[in-house]
Amino acid sequence: MEFRGTTIVAVKRGGKTVFGADSQATMDTMIFKDGVKKLHKIYNDKVLVGFAGAVAPAFAVLRMLEENLNKYSGNLQRALVELSSGWQNLNAMRGGVEVMMIVANKDDMYIFTGDGMVTKPNDDFVSIGSGSKYCLGAARALFENTKLSPREIAEKALNIASDYCIYTNNHLFFEEV
Q1: What's the predicted TM-score (pTM) here?
Q2: Which bin fits 23, alpha (ψ -120 to 50), beta or left (φ > 0)?
Q3: Which of the residues 6, 17, 26, 168 is marked catalytic?
Q4: Which of 109, 129, 113 is closest to 17 using CA atoms?
Q5: Which residues, including other chains, have CB under 8 Å from residue 44's CB and lie 6 or more apart?
Q6: Fewest 10 Å CB contacts: which of 5, 19, 76, 105?
Q7: Whole-angstrom Cα distance, residue 33 to residue 75?
Q8: Is 6 marked active-site?
């Protein structure tokens, strides 16, 4: 049986970055657990991480990222580049890991994938996970056509995603940096 599903969104506006996530874990065709924590603050609460995919590798990446943040005095880009290099070597030995993360501090936002790729999004909003297509479309419409706060955009976009994606629920969690 395969564990599936999550939806994470990050929105940056007005000097704030807000992450939102649903809380459902799905195994095959049933809801396995509600209330799963998918958002984490690290590096003295200055960096937000939201992850989708395999849990054990996500926590390994989280630990390695925090070690790199400490090593490079909180320089998020440098910490992620170093993480990417080390993770690609480990991942080659494992044969691929399904994990995807959004990582942000007050200034920058990145996506980290299971193959060790680091990408800086073009926009001030991004979404990952099973409901990400719905969530991203809603976030874009709200971001470009309203003056809503990042929290309001994240909440409305996640609720829209939960209406369409069976792997996304509307029991939501938020964090801000």
Answers
A1: 0.92
A2: alpha
A3: 6
A4: 109
A5: none
A6: 105
A7: 35
A8: yes
